[in-house]
Design goal:
globular, Dna Ligase, domain 1, 3-stranded mixed β-sheet, 149 residues
């Protein structure tokens, strides 16, 4: 996401929270701020760590509650990438998105875009007469650094 897109998502998320009747709570606003600065998915723990580095006193339970609300409002996507840990990333209101490569050895997550993959998903949807509302693709394997070890 570009800096403009980050700011636009932040404002969109805060507006949607307000429209849904949520006050601008410290935890929710802080989580939105951290997520708005990311290009890829973060765990709740990584969000909590980022908040502590910024000297924001938000407990991990509050981070999870904020993520649940953001997920329910379709402002973030919860991604199961293996290793028993969910990751969260902002959902761009325009529908733009990326997919992920996950190293099963070190846990490194690498985002990727692929227009051919998106076209394939569209063709599959048409062929099977199935309306795909959303999708995510997670490819698991070993990154180059881990393969070299």
């Amino acid at each position: 996401m570009s800096t403009h897109t980050h700011a636009a998502w932040r404002e969109h998320a805060l507006h949607q929270l307000e429209s849904a009747g949520y006050r601008r709570g410290e935890a929710r606003s802080a989580v939105v701020e951290v997520l708005s600065r990311q290009d890829c998915a973060l765990t709740a723990q990584e969000i909590g760590d980022a908040l502590r580095r910024r000297r924001r006193a938000v407990g991990l339970a509050s981070v999870y509650r904020a993520l649940d609300v953001l997920s329910d409002l379709k402002l973030v996507q919860r991604l199961e990438m293996g290793q028993g840990v969910a990751r969260y990333e902002p959902l761009d209101p325009s529908g733009d998105h990326h997919h992920h490569l996950v190293c099963q050895l070190c846990g490194n997550v690498v985002p990727f875009d692929d227009a051919d993959l998106e076209s394939t998903i569209e063709r599959l949807s048409d062929r099977l007469e199935f309306d795909v509302d959303e999708h995510d693709v997670v490819l698991r394997g070993a990154c180059s650094a881990c393969r070299e070890r």
